[in-house]
Amino acid sequence: MTTTTQDTTEGRTHPSLAVELTGLTRVYGSVKALDGLTLHIEPGEMVALLGPSGCGKTTALRILAGLDEATTGSVSVGGRDLTGVSANKRDMGMVFQAYSLFPHLTVLDNVAFGLKLRGESAATRRARASEMLELVGLSEHRDKYASQLSGGQQQRVALARALAIRPSVLLLDEPLSALDAKVRVQLREEIRRVQQEVGTTTLFVTHDQEEALAVADRVGVMNQGRLEQLAAPADLYTHPATPFVAGFVGLHNKVTAHVDGDTADVLGSRVPVLEGSIASGTGVAMVRPESVTVTADPEGRATVVSVEFLGPFSRVHLTAAGTALVAQMSSSQARSLVAGEPVGVTIEPSGVLVVQEQPAG
Amino acid sequence: MTRRTPLSRTVRWVVLALFAVFFVFPLYAMADFSTRNLIQGGRTLAAWKNLVRDDQLYSAITISLALAAFTVVVMLAVLVPTMIWVRLRAPWAKGMVEFLCLLPLTIPALVVVVGLRGVYEWVTYFFGESTLTLTFVYVVLVLPYAYRSIDAALSAIDLQTLSEAARSLGAGWATTIARVVVPNIWSGILSAAFISIAVVLGEYTIASLSGYQNLQVVIVQIGKTDGTTSVAASLATLLFGFALLLLLSLFTRGHRRGPGTNHVAQATVVAPAPAPAPAPAPLATAQPGAAAS
Ligand SMILES: Nc1ncnc2c1ncn2[C@@H]1O[C@H](COP(=O)(O)OP(=O)(O)OP(=O)(O)O)[C@@H](O)[C@H]1O
Ligand SMILES: [Mg+2]
């Protein structure tokens, strides 16, 4: 259950504990923010909770942190039930969506804050805080105040502050959403590196699917207070369990398909169907844009509507057999396509999810 | 920072000059009167020496200062935790608390005195007849001003995130308030405190109507027999109040250069607050007239 990772200050270690959320519900008046959320996180694992705005991600995180109370259900860390344990006794490191550095303290004092509360000596605090700042690459900013740092730097200090206390669990609530795109990519890689270095069990909340797939060991997709699927990023992408997951994880085409045994006929291509699809008959296939291959073909049954240039790759909007279709390809391939021209379309034979027509969600 | 145009500079000087005439002239008149030797002519500091030499006046000064100190302590101890709690845990009560805190502004002093008579029978039963029992009324009296400055300071920080960060790092509620919230609303607390001091030192009506001898009551009494001493005491009170406000604005400006950007926001809090500062003025400036008669 418990493994540990070495770190340098006084040879002490960061704990790696399993986290268990069992049947969590949270009702606010008439809103069900959580509706039976169950989630198991392995020791040292990084799980990303992904879902649209308002699906209950923050609520789940706050309940785990002890900042909110579940209506029913329980939380345990390392096998210990945390019901009734207040937030300040849970030893969880948290990074918030909003900038949360204490404005009256320097960067170093911010990072050392939790250690001071734990009665560590001034020398230990200094050493530990310096080490954490080094970990996030901000050693030279130690004497600055939050207002003198960029947003990305502030979030890195917040990460160092959360890790300084050797938390039982690291909680990240959309820590990157206030940052611009470039910094966001940089910082998420940094968060991943730091997390792997210290080995702390981590729950990372985000509504950005790319972010979730890029950093996490496993991704949990949430919808309306429930977990729809929990799987490794590649599995989630290739084997979505529900239409909601399929729709959320990639921009998906909905194309009429005829299922016949293990395969389906999608726009003339034979494609294997995924588990969870309908057994037979006509349904809607969820086809990823990069699974659609477009070839210049004067006899083709599809027509190019427009080509959207996005740098290294392009998105091509088509109509085929009366349905709108989006294909994604490298920009060099897309260059030969002209709006209004007929083209041929084939679907790559990777698995597709075929569901009943007009699926819920 | 907007660039100063010559016009705005002129306007600034005109405003300052008007301000100087309006405020400095009465002060000058009081200073002049209080140092006059009314019997032999010439100048004397006798009136000013009376501030410490006259037993009645001296004890009134100490009582009013003690009242101010107690009022500030009780007000902060009650208001700061309550306002933080309401913002974090009972936001639905915010409107009610604000209403209650601003209510004293609308109630005439006479009504307060009559209304409190019954309550004060109990207060004096438990705490004795000391003038210091006025602390309870004064805490209520300063609530509107104190509420405003503390509320503005709290609005300038992300209270929820900061306190949740502190709690997740292991701070209990008391530690969170003392180590995280208070340092970040410090200028609001200071301005609440200083303004409360100014209000208490200038308070006459309630003390006089309830038969207590605070500084302003004694100043009026002395004014009936010894004009110069009473004017000296008034002027001293006024100057003390000005010194406090000056200190406050210096402090918050010094702080503005410091760490947080939100200190800038906090510093502006101070702007509306000094409104009650002239409170001692009407009473004090009334004295020369009283003395002359
Ligand atoms: N304190 C609260 N009082 C009432 N309703 C709340 C409260 N907190 C959350 N909710 C509701 O619970 C639901 C879930 O909220 P939550 O903040 O967990 O969503 P989220 O998944 O974090 O969304 P986002 O991506 O926008 O942050 C929402 O419908 C929200 O309106
Ligand atoms: Mg959220």
List keywords for this structure.
heterodimer; A: 361 residues; alpha+beta; Rossmann fold; OB fold (Dihydrolipoamide Acetyltransferase, E2P); 2 domains; six-stranded mixed β-sheet; five-stranded antiparallel β-sheet; 9 helices; 22 strands; 25% helix; 36% strand; elongated; disordered N terminus; B: 293 residues; mainly alpha; MetI-like fold; binds adenosine-5'-triphosphate; binds magnesium ion
Question: Layout of helices and strands, plus pairs?
Answer:
The complex is a heterodimer of chains A (361) and B (293).
Chain A: E1 3-6, E2 13-16, E3 19-28, E4 31-41, E5 46-50, H1 57-65, E6 72-77, E7 80-81, E8 92-95, H2 107-117, H3 122-135, H4 151-164, E9 169-173, H5 181-198, E10 202-206, H6 209-215, E11 218-223, E12 226-231, H7 233-238, H8 243-249, E13 253-260, E14 263-266, E15 269-272, E16 280-287, E17 292-296, E18 302-310, E19 313-320, E20 323-330, H9 331-334, E21 342-347, E22 353-355
Parallel strand pairs in A: 5-10, 5-11, 8-9, 9-10
Antiparallel strand pairs in A: 1-2, 3-4, 3-6, 6-7, 11-12, 13-14, 13-16, 14-15, 16-22, 17-21, 18-19, 18-21, 19-20
Helix pairs in contact in A: 2-3, 2-4, 3-4
Chain B: H1 6-34, H2 46-53, H3 55-89, H4 94-102, H5 109-127, H6 134-155, H7 159-168, H8 173-184, H9 186-202, H10 205-209, H11 215-223, H12 227-256, H13 262-269, H14 280-292
Helix pairs in contact in B: 1-12, 2-3, 2-12, 3-6, 3-9, 3-11, 6-9, 7-8, 9-12, 9-14, 11-12, 11-14, 12-13, 12-14
The structure holds adenosine-5'-triphosphate (ATP) and magnesium ion.
